[in-house]
Amino acid sequence: MVSTRTTTWLQQRWQGRSVPVLALVPLSWIYGALVGLRRQLYHLGVLRRHRLAVPVIIVGNVTVGGTGKTPLVIWLSRFLLNAGYRPGIITRGYGGQAAAWPQAVTPDSDPAQVGDEPVLLARGSGCPVAAGPDRIAAAGALLAAHHCDVLISDDGLQHLHLARDIEIVVIDGQRRFGNGLLLPAGPLREPAARAGLADLRVTQGSARDGEHGMELRAGHLRNLADGRVRALPEFAGCTVHAVAGIGNPARFFAGLRAAGLVVQEHAFPDHHRFRAQDLEFGDGAPVIMTAKDAVKCERFARPEYWCLEAAAFPDAGFGPSVLRLLKEKSGG
User: Fold this and answer.
1) What CATH number is given for 29-207+315-329 in this structure?
2) How far apart, in whole angstroms, are the C-alpha atoms of residue 143 and residue 141?
């Protein structure tokens, strides 16, 4: 697993073109050539896409690191439910250690087995969720067990084997596409122009022309030990330990500081498998973490552990745009 220090160093370098970054450019050329070749093979039909019996919506990104993708999937699933659809969610299950895949995911599933994000999706969406490295197998299991009429794939923009009807690319409004270089010299999984080929682009933060804006709003704090709920402003002025094992921990830390908290930062690698000793800071101060991290820490929760609930709020035009595309591409 890549260390937090290495991840932070890379993310900082990926915002510019320093000498260490430029030294990695030849590797980026090789990576880019492989990405382009693979896409061309699918375009020519040498590699075949698998089309499901129901429409598929991909929610993904062209960069590594957190963009707000999972909260948007939760919002979208609930929006489609309210619009009369029966959505289901398929996801990679990254970090899960299950012996067999795919796995049906429930709110009570063990994140060590199925991954942290699938459990978060099952709890927040109200929809059936299936996890597995093979998204087509996960989709098949979901459709066999539930009467879904549309599937949402959490991530999977680069999983070209699965045919899709709608692509939604999520963009970090602060970091955008970084230095514009492909991995490993930059944060891009694909060239930045790939985002322009998606049906919809959603930007967390300041949206540009042709993009829908999205705000990720902090809600209440939930105590992991007893379920008590407190408002975030109640902790203003308090010194807290902020814990984040997500793609962009800096945004989480900044949000707590903006609410008036005195933050001691503890960044961990994305999808970190927390142990009790990771959160033993020895002073009894409140420990505040993201919902994604909380699902892995509930089993050893202590009274000072709090989870900050957050939700995505895309602009008013996003939902109608999804419905319009869904009707167009699925024949009404």
Assistant:
1) 3.40.50
2) 6
